[in-house]
Amino acid sequence: MSDLSTRPEAGGTTPSASGPWPIELDEVTVRYPNGVTALKGVSLRIEAGEMVAIVGLSGSGKSTMIRTINGLVPPTSGRVAVGPHAVSELRGRALREARGDIGMIFQGFNLADRASVFHNALVGRFSHMPTWRTMLGLASDVDRDMVMRSLDSVGMLEKVWHRAGALSGGQKQRVAIARALSQEPAVMLADEPVASLDPPTAHSVMADLASINASRGLTVLVNLHLMDLARQYTTRMIGLRAGEVVYDGPAASATDADFEAIYGRPVQSRDRLGE
Amino acid sequence: MTTVAEAAERPAQAIPPRPRTWPRTARIVAVLAVLTAATATPALGGVEIDLGAIADNWTNGADRIGQMLVPDLSVLPRTWQPLLETLQMAVVGAAISAVLAVPLSLWAARPTNPNAPVRAAVRFVLNVIRAVPDLVYATVLVAMVGVGTLPGVITLVLFDIGIVVKLVSEAIDSADSSYMEAGRAAGGTQTQINRLTALPQTWPALASQVLYSLELNVRISAILGLVGAGGIGRLIDEMRGFYRYDALSTIILEILIVVILIELASNVLRKRLR
User: Fold this and answer.
1) What is the mean pLDDT of each run of 10 residues along chain A (275 residues)?
2) A30 falls within a domain
3) Is A183:A216 a contact under the CB 8 Å cutoff?
4) Domain total of chain A
């Protein structure tokens, strides 16, 4: 169920109010306290409105890389910039404001299962809401409207008052996408968004991400380990291996040999999702 | 790496001999036995346990037990008022402690409070609160605010906070908190994340522990009356003073029934909370 009609053209189409933003990594190194070096001097530039796959096996550093972009993981050295935000230099309120402009979805959905779909999506309004408003549990009309429109755009509006824990995996990931869209982000990050889903659901979630890139013109960065998803849904592919960029080029024309260089081993059947 | 298919092709292997565990078990039992003997030997600094005293004195108690086996129900009308007072103290104490326990539990748990020094401070204060026996609170409070239900209720609140916050914060510590990463990624403050997502995740644990504290409160407030902190304990003290063991057993039966009723009610509530 490939949704080729929503395949994005590089550069995007209709820019949102703030416009899509470029992402720039300059000699970024991340060393964890346990001594593991997850990223080794990675430099790259992602243009505004691009749809980029970061491909690599688990442990290649792609999860770390996507988390340096919104400051969840601070770089040990180097510089990270997203649009006007110098993320790697920010702390406290400024960092939270920058994160508010960067949406993120996760492999495990990261929803609060006992909270309603509405409240989970309202999490995306945090950076737009004063803390006292959150404390009182009062969403403003603007926040409520934004959440409802985001849920509607992923087809989850009818479940708005259901508990998040009662949803299927695909529905949970859609709510997580709506949560990110409620932020009105300029950049969307996705960390293995379909690795916990069955193949048909995985394809439809990837199509959702592609259409977000095409219709909203967001810069989308998605971590994947499956080669066919990268080829089908993204325009540019960055291959990571042991914390270093080993491939950077168009995704559709990447050969099996290119993937073997990224994986560091022959291509196997489990490297493809299939239909 | 061997696959299942490869393993199936190999000839069946001999089952490895089961390791002998009884020498270790024997050593553990021996250590426990020696420790028990040592703690009960006065010569080694252990406690003095004189089993002979049981033989000498058991008849004294037997009379009282005999009396208690025939409850004197005529005391019942006099128990309603203090029993109701005990129940009121238990409910008010549990309710106040529940409200106070919400922020304290969130501050005492690691996922909801990443600030280690503040967390340690909250936990230390709670350890102090738990370390003081409830009768000490009641005695001091009776001296401070006078005889009546008020010192009793304050004692129950302190006691309940100690246990509820400990158990709920441990539940938060051990629960999955991956949703917090999403809140942080969206630019939320810890307070926002706690209010909108951690709180609904914590309700069942909190409700369950508050119901448990309600049950404990009924038992404890039976004791608190001994030092003048209100409730049915005052009547227990009075009956004991008059050697009315038959009336005492009526009161004990009453407390037992109330505790069982609360337990049944809280079991029903707990099931609905899941």
Assistant:
1) 36 48 89 88 89 88 91 89 85 88 91 91 88 83 90 89 90 92 92 88 90 89 88 89 87 82 82 77
2) yes
3) no
4) 1
Query: What mean pLDDT do residues B136-150 have?
Result: 88
- Strands A236-241, A37-46: pairing is unpaired
Answer yes or no: do A104 and B182 touch at CB < 8 A.
yes
Domains in chain B: ranges and CATH: 72-273 (1.10.3720.10)
Give the Cα separation of B28 and B18 in Å (integer): 20
In a domain, A78, yes or no: yes
- Binding-site residues on chain A for chain B (CB distance < 8 A): 70, 72, 95-104, 106, 108, 110-115, 119-120, 122-124, 126-127, 129, 131, 134-135, 137, 176, 179-180, 183
From the list A112, A126, A129, the residue facing B179 with the nearest CB is A112
Does residue A34 lie in a domain region?
A: yes
Residue A55, domain CATH: 3.40.50.300
| Prediction pTM value | 0.79
Q: How many CB atoms lie within 10 A of CB B13?
A: 7
pLDDT score of B236 more than 90 = no
- Residue range(s) defining the domain that contains residue A39: 22-101+185-266
Write the burial class of residue A22 (CB in 10 Å: 0-12 exposed, 13-18 middle, 19+ buried).
middle
Q: What is the ipTM of this complex?
A: 0.84
